[in-house]
């Protein structure tokens, strides 16, 4: 009930089974989930002193390995809400090919997300690929190059093209983020999402959706692709 009161005060609503308690500070990622200290250090260095409500509830859910549908307003800090637990899950850089992928609707957003991962992983040699025409063709010409990367940030069009051309291999991906999922699951993108999901053939795949709004049609569609998800809503639905 203490947790209930806390969630209410932060206007966090959750739906689903066995929802992990929120974290109230970033160091709790370390005390509760054994996250590496570099994460907290980089957060502090970037002046991220306290997690925002969506970060407080989404981070422990993703760290617990659960699938997530998160809905929180623009500017509420959704990027760190997935970047922190994904970097934790990746452990160390591995040169084994993409293990996590973030799909966002525009190149500008992808670039921002890329920047956040770079800042947050400072001091660790994670290889983050931002898929563009140029990086895709380099990797097509030198398939060995793909294996150097841990993480892929991309738009759906670019990614589907890469899959169809055999330029990207998603069979090792364990964490998939659909950012601005309401836009990604709009009518025009649905076939691309199907193709991306089919290419993520690893049975261990953990899926996460982040969005500012989740219209009921989109939510219904999202539910069909998720396994026992937890839904988190911050602020107005
Ligand atoms: P959203 O994706 O929900 O629209 P962003 O992830 O783009 O939001 O973050 C919005 C802004 O808030 C960014 O400038 C980011 O640096 C800042 N921010 C995120 N988390 C925190 C935090 N815990 N403390 C302070 N600022 C934060
Ligand atoms: Mg965002």
Protein described:
- The protein is 45% helix and 15% strand.
- The mean pLDDT is 94.
- It is built from 12 helices and 8 strands.
- Helix 4 (53-63) runs parallel beside helix 5 and helix 9 packs across helix 11 (190-199).
- It has an 8-stranded mixed β-sheet.
- The protein is an alpha/beta fold and 237 residues long.
- It binds adenosine-5'-diphosphate (ADP) and magnesium ion (MG).
- Magnesium ion binds next to helix 5.
SSE layout and pairing:
Layout: H1 2-9, E1 12-15, H2 28-33, H3 37-45, H4 53-63, E2 68-71, H5 78-90, E3 100-103, H6 107-120, E4 128-130, H7 133-141, H8 143-146, E5 151-154, H9 156-164, E6 175-179, H10 181-184, H11 190-199, E7 206-211, H12 216-225, E8 230-234
Adenosine-5'-diphosphate binds next to helix 5.
Coarse shape: globular
Tell me what portion of residues adopts beta-strand conformation.
Answer: 5-15%
Largest sheet: 8 strands, mixed
Assign the structural class, choosing from mainly alpha, mainly beta, alpha/beta, alpha+beta, or little secondary structure. alpha/beta
Beginning-to-end CA distance, first to last residue: 23 Å
Concise summary:
By secondary structure, this protein is α/β, with parallel strands linked by helices. The chain has helices at 2-9, 28-33, 37-45, 53-63, 78-90, 107-120, 133-141, 143-146, 156-164, 181-184, 190-199, 216-225, and strands spanning 12-15, 68-71, 100-103, 128-130, 151-154, 175-179, 206-211, 230-234. The chain has twelve helices and eight strands.
Give structural attributes:
single chain, 237 residues, 12 helices, globular, binds adenosine-5'-diphosphate, binds magnesium ion, ATP binding
């Amino acid at each position: 009930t203490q947790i209930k009161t806390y969630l209410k005060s932060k206007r966090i609503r959750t739906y689903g089974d066995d929802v992990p308690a929120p974290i109230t500070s970033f160091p709790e990622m370390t005390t509760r989930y054994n996250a590496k200290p570099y994460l907290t250090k980089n957060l502090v260095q970037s002046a991220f002193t306290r997690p925002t409500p969506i970060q407080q509830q989404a981070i422990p859910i993703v760290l617990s390995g659960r699938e997530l549908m998160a809905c929180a307003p623009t500017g509420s800090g959704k990027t760190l809400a997935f970047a922190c637990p994904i970097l934790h899950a990746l452990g160390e850089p591995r040169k084994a090919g993409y293990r996590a992928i973030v799909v966002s609707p525009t190149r500008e957003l992808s670039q921002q997300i890329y920047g956040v991962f770079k800042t947050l992983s400072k001091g660790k040699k994670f290889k983050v690929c931002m898929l563009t025409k140029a990086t895709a063709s380099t990797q097509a010409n030198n398939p060995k190059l793909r294996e150097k990367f841990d993480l892929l940030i991309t738009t759906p069009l670019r990614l589907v093209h890469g899959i169809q051309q055999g330029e990207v291999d998603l069979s090792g991906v364990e964490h998939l983020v659909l950012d601005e999922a309401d836009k990604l699951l709009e009518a025009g993108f649905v076939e691309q999402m199907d193709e991306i999901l089919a290419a993520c053939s690893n049975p261990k795949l953990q899926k996460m959706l982040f969005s500012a709004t989740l219209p009921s049609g989109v939510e219904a569609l999202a539910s069909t692709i998720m396994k026992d998800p937890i839904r988190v809503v911050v602020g107005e639905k």
